[in-house]
Amino acid sequence: MSVDDLPPQPQPEPTLYDRITGVGTSVRRALLIPALAVLSALIIGAFIIAVTDIDTLKIWGSDPGEAFRRTMTGIGRAYKALFVGSLGSTKAITETLFSATPSILAGLAVAIGFQAGLFNIGVNGQMLIGGMAGLWVGFSISVPAFIHIPLAIVAAMVAGAIWAGIAGLLKARTGAHEVITTMMLNFVAIFLVDYLLKTSIFQQPGRNDPISKPAEVTAQFPTLLEGYRLHIGFLIALVAVALVWWLMYRTTIGFEFRAVGFNPTGARYAGMSVSWLYVSVLAVSGALAGIAGVNQVLGLEPYRGLSNFAGSVGFDAIALALLGRSQPLGVLFAGLLFGALRAGGREMQGAAGIPIDLVLVLQALIIVMIAAPALVRAIYRIRTSDQEPTTVISTGWGG
User: Which of 80, 195, 234, 314 could form a disulfide with 123 if both were Cys (CB 3.0 to 4.6 A apart)?
Assistant: First the structure.
């Protein structure tokens, strides 16, 4: 009997990761490198905790046994505080989810750009513009909450899309690189918001500093649990993850976004309008950033606009999208991880006396490990696979 006479073998069912990403890679392989990167970062973080404990270092020469015990106790206390502060109670879990919400939305904004070959580093500015538009709707009209909140979100999405679309239009019409234009638009947004907060349209009467009027109660995001800060913004973030997945992997426009990111020249020869797609990608990215911005205004006390209310969320989103491999579910899990680090970091600082800066060090270490998968494979002696997906940040640089 020859090989041709054998009956056809049934093909294995595609995994969840295969359905989501379209890549023939198992969930285990997809999560292995990020998981080992987090583990490596925690190990290096433990070493940093040890070497920064000056009192214990002094007794290593005279009493190494006691020094070792103190070192391990300090590391254990720090990581226990990190766990307790992020997952150890209902309050801790809600704080993790609360902290993760804007990061997930901003991470999705960056990830869409990455998949389309565009490096949108102007998410912070888009958050500011979107947040101000949502804030204006929040205090300027009086309607029921079920109308007020959606109107504010839509206003934020439109404003963020327009602001990001400027960079897309400049790239499409003049070839101006999105890194430069989105970076400069960040500064424009910062100073524009400072100016607007001092005008009669936004400024709180009787104040001379840049503080806006408070949003109406009907525009404030309601909390999900009484007595905790977690609000409907987290549910909005989950819906955004699902919609972005559907957009990118179940629609024609999503296919075109990814095609342009993979090969703009090939996409143009296939009949796609690359210029229009650049504008569309950044508009969608800016809309997501706008939702993240309004979350920082209508979902966070005192429910009013302050200078640079976006903080560093937009810049952290770049690292978050990289950690999530620019995949919607990956961004969700990366956002939860960053939220846990922020929530647990406050507990580390209070209970274990560990500087809050160590959390930033852990985040940076995780990103370094993720950005160097070959290093992680070499450390843990993991074989490479030809079918394993590679992380592409952007093909837009110099394009």
Answer: 314
C-alpha–C-alpha distance, residues 330 and 30, integer Å: 10
In angstroms, the CA 382 to CA 376 distance is 8
The answer to whether residue 41 sits within a structural domain is yes
β-bridge partners, 212? 203
Query: How far out from the chain centre does Cα 347 lie?
Result: 22
Is residue 155 domain-shared with residue 173, that is, in the same domain?
yes
Distance CA 273, CA 373 (A): 34
Residue with tokens 């009669």: 200
Assess whether 241 and 353 both reside in one domain: no
Q: What is the mean pLDDT of residues 152-171?
A: 96
Give the residue among 185, 182, 169 at the shortest CA–CA distance from 318.
182
- Rounded (10°) CA dihedral 23, 24, 27, 28: -130
The set of residues, in sequence order, having a beta carbon less than 8 Å from that of 175 and lying 6+ positions away, is none
Location of structure tokens 């989950």: 238
pLDDT at 3: 42
Two tokens at 246?
A: 């559907």
- Count the Cβ atoms, other than its own, within 10 Å of residue 214: 17
DSSP string, 112-174: HHHHTT-----HHHHHHHHHHHHHHHHHH----HHHHHHHHHHHHHHHHHHHHHHHHHHHHHH
Return the sign of the alpha-carbon dihedral for residues 398, 370, 257, 315.
negative
Q: Is 231 helix (H, G, I), strand (E, B) or coil?
A: strand
Q: Are residues 260 and 281 in the same domain?
A: yes
What average pLDDT is seen over the chain? 85
Q: Within this chain, do residues 339 and 370 fall inside the same structural domain, yes or no?
A: yes
* Token representation of residue 7: 């009956």
Question: Model pTM?
Answer: 0.85
Q: Where is pLDDT greater, at 209 or 233?
A: 233
Which parts of the chain are beta strand (E)? Answer: none
